[in-house]
Automatic annotation (TrEMBL), chains A, B:
<dbReference type="InterPro" id="IPR036271">
    <property type="entry name" value="Tet_transcr_reg_TetR-rel_C_sf"/>
</dbReference>
<protein>
    <submittedName>
        <fullName>TetR family transcriptional regulator</fullName>
    </submittedName>
</protein>
<dbReference type="InterPro" id="IPR009057">
    <property type="entry name" value="Homeodomain-like_sf"/>
</dbReference>
<keyword id="KW-0805">Transcription regulation</keyword>
<feature type="domain" description="HTH tetR-type">
    <location>
        <begin position="35"/>
        <end position="95"/>
    </location>
</feature>
<dbReference type="InterPro" id="IPR001647">
    <property type="entry name" value="HTH_TetR"/>
</dbReference>
<dbReference type="Pfam" id="PF00440">
    <property type="entry name" value="TetR_N"/>
</dbReference>
<feature type="DNA-binding region" description="H-T-H motif">
    <location>
        <begin position="58"/>
        <end position="77"/>
    </location>
</feature>
<keyword id="KW-0804">Transcription</keyword>
<keyword id="KW-0238">DNA-binding</keyword>
<dbReference type="GO" id="GO:0000976">
    <property type="term" value="F:transcription cis-regulatory region binding"/>
</dbReference>
<feature type="region of interest" description="Disordered">
    <location>
        <begin position="1"/>
        <end position="32"/>
    </location>
</feature>
<dbReference type="GO" id="GO:0003700">
    <property type="term" value="F:DNA-binding transcription factor activity"/>
</dbReference>
<dbReference type="Pfam" id="PF16859">
    <property type="entry name" value="TetR_C_11"/>
</dbReference>
<dbReference type="InterPro" id="IPR050109">
    <property type="entry name" value="HTH-type_TetR-like_transc_reg"/>
</dbReference>
<dbReference type="InterPro" id="IPR011075">
    <property type="entry name" value="TetR_C"/>
</dbReference>
Length: 225, 225
């Protein structure tokens, strides 16, 4: 269950298929052969990325590992950037929901904990995907779409807090969520400080205190109230 | 005047010297020939990075642009990672100080504005250096050192606020500074959202409100008070 960071591993368990000329096995995945090949190829991208990083990632190695023809990969994904973009788009296609702990600070702390876990996981798939987004425009746009989708899903954390009376009605959910999560990304992705077990909770508490002090009140709400 | 983000352009104005076998000109820079060659080479790195990005950066192109022998560059910097690391180390070697506006929120807003300006400048040197830190271990460590130095210099913003009575004495300066600046980096470097003129001020106000609510009080201060 990964949050604004992607969770590309979910729902992509690998099925053996040595070559895409092989007849489909009896037990088929939903979506049939095309979907099955996509799963194999994207799993292979993740495995190659985890083992070799972006610099070791090639469409040929992915095709070989997935057991599909090179031309299948070239035709459908084009290049490494196209493969990474599809990995990120596939990660969005899940039923992930933000934590529901009963309080704003609790939800934000649990969310930050998920982000910290994803960003410190081994092999470092999530950080490798973020790093790849500095190399490929296609991957960068897919990473943007993934984050946008994750933050949009997280807005329910704020609307629940509003319903509970923890926050004023016109609270800028996105600004609050960015304030809560940005320090975790900043430490682990940019500053590259060692993981601090207190960081997820601290950043959550900071955002919750700022929210209670009106830091995310929308200007409209001021004029309307 | 760039803040936790580097300002590699400062103090590296280029002097013409077509080849390092040329006798030194009459007006010499402090530090002599070695320092002059370093300036020329690091300027060339910045110019090449700004024009071609990391992927177009080669030691040969840097040597040619700087007008020095290739062997001089190889011997002293080794590779592109070594060149980038030295650019970042040179950026630390300045007299930059954080803004002093008379209030915590004002200082943080001015600091964030400097960061936003650096991260949206054209050519995008600062973001290219951050991107390069995902490609080269040497550059990554130098970027870490630069940020560490910048955040350390910024701690005076917090100690001034403590002296003015804006903050309790035992305030975790680093956590406050990270909370204030992280949203700007998160938006512009990772989420890649279009620059929002309100972002620097919003993030500053959020951190200042959280600070006033005790978000960055150190546990020691609680037990001591």
């Amino acid at each position: 269950m990964t949050p604004p960071g992607p969770d590309p591993g979910q729902g992509t368990e690998r099925e053996p298929e040595p070559d895409d000329t092989t007849p489909p096995p009896t037990r088929r995945r939903p979506g049939g052969r095309t979907a099955r090949i996509r799963t194999q190829v994207l799993d292979a991208v993740l495995a190659e990325l985890g083992e070799h990083g972006f610099d070791g990632l090639t469409t040929d190695a992915v095709a070989a590992r997935a057991g599909v023809h090179r031309t299948t990969v070239y035709r459908r994904w084009g290049d490494v950037g196209g493969l990474l973009a599809d990995v990120l788009d596939a990660a969005s296609d899940d039923d992930w929901q933000p934590p529901d702990t009963g309080s704003l600070e609790g939800d934000l702390a649990a969310l930050n904990q998920e982000i910290q876990t994803a960003l410190t996981a081994q092999p470092p798939i999530v950080t490798a995907l973020i790093a790849a987004s500095f190399r490929s425009e296609k991957a960068a746009h897919a990473q943007q779409r993934l984050w946008e989708g994750r933050y949009a899903r997280c807005e329910i954390v704020v609307s629940r807090a509003v319903r509970r009376g923890e926050l004023p009605p016109h609270t800028d959910a996105r600004r609050l969520l960015i304030a809560a999560t940005a320090p975790v990304y900043h430490h682990l992705v940019l500053l590259r400080t060692p993981p601090d077990p207190q960081l997820p909770g601290h950043a959550a508490r900071t955002a919750a205190l700022a929210a209670a002090a009106g830091a995310f009140a929308e200007p409209r709400s001021v004029s309307r109230s």
